Amino acid sequence: MNSNKTKIISGTAIMLFPISLMSSSVAEEIIIQQEKISFEKCLNVITSSQDKLSVAPEINNVADKKRIASFTLVDGTLIIVCDGIEGEVTVSTNTN
Predict the structure, then answer these.
(1) How far is it, in rounded angstroms, from Cα 36 to Cα 76?
(2) CATH code at 87?
(3) Domain range for residue 18?
(4) How many domains does one find in the chain?
(5) Backbone dihedral angles phi then psi of residue 86, each to the nearest 5 degrees
(6) How remote is the C-alpha of 12 from its chain's centroid?
(7) Of 15, 34, 70, 91, which one's alpha carbon is 20 to 30 angstroms from that of 55?
C-alpha cells in the first residue's frame, strides 16, 4: 500500500511535469501536487523520481525533517519538498 502511494505520487509528478511546462512560458514556480505524507514515504518519492528520471537531484538538508530535492532537466527544474514537520510533500516545477 505504501509503495503504491509512493509510485502514484512520483508517477503523477513525472507525468504532469511536461504539461505544466507547456502551460507557462515565463520562469515561475508552479505547484503541481501537494499532499499529506510521512517523511519516510516522501524520501521514497525522491528516490523513485530519481530512478524514473535517471537524474540525480541536488539535495538540500534544510532541517532534520525537511529536504528539498531539485532535479535539473532540459526544460526546467522539478522540485520535491519533503516537510516532516508538517507531514507533507510538495511537488513543483520551475521552467527555464
Answers:
(1) 25
(2) 3.30.160
(3) 2-95
(4) 1
(5) -85, -15
(6) 10
(7) 34
